[in-house]
Amino acid sequence: MHEAPATPELDRLSSLLERFSVQAHMFHNGPLCGVTHFAAQPGLGFLHVMRRGTMTVTHKARSGAARKLEVTEPSLLFYPRPLAHDFHNAPAEGADFTCATLAFDGGDMHPLVRSLPSLIVLPLSRVSDVAQTLSLLFGEAERVRCGQRLVADRLFEVLLLQVLRWLLDHPEEGGVQAGLLHGLSDPRLAKVLVAMQERPGEPWSLPSMAECAGMSRSAFAALFRQAVGDTPANYLIQWRLSLAQALLRSGRSLKQVADELGYANASALSRVFTQRMGASPRAWLKSL
User: What is the pTM of this model?
Assistant: First the structure.
């Protein structure tokens, strides 16, 4: 797929991350020597920054990531989903790291998490925008001061946002396959996706989506399917259901959620929810 030019006037991430947040927690700073195992923790991803050195990373077979890869320069290693991995460093004077866990709202059901590969390895030399953030992050990690942990956590969140920005502008280079992030990388589709994110309760139809994108219906439907991996109608249903889950978790009533998402009543939302999720909203909430 041809990579379309970016649209800097359109904010493609804020409305999404305002509804589905992510929280970082720094848990390590310094060298890692020998073999270090990172267990898969439910609901958590990882963001590692290798500041210096080289290493080998291994994963189990059929994990969705390469069994073995070599990291030979300062790099970011981004695991959006829980995935066990091992870092193999020299027994002494191993590579130097700053590491954080990432708690995505909704876990594996976070819209961005679903659209990302199992692992993204990004050499720092490719992402010049992160240099200042990393300088601040390393400064906080190396010196104990009041509020150090909080500042370091927020800086990791800024770093993640900058990585997502880079992936929006370089989806193929980042290994991003069909999905939300790939759709947002196309300026025509981005207009529609952001509009649906911000106004999910509107009576969206194929004609109204195509008009928003400035395309014919057939061309829009074909491009959407190619970039996002789903039809516009199915994507809209999934987006509304993702929002419904988040709103129900926050304590909103089914009727309130139905009104906000454009359903005629609570029963209409409950039917769609049950068909797609395999459980009623009430049963789903009880299972959490």
Answer: 0.89
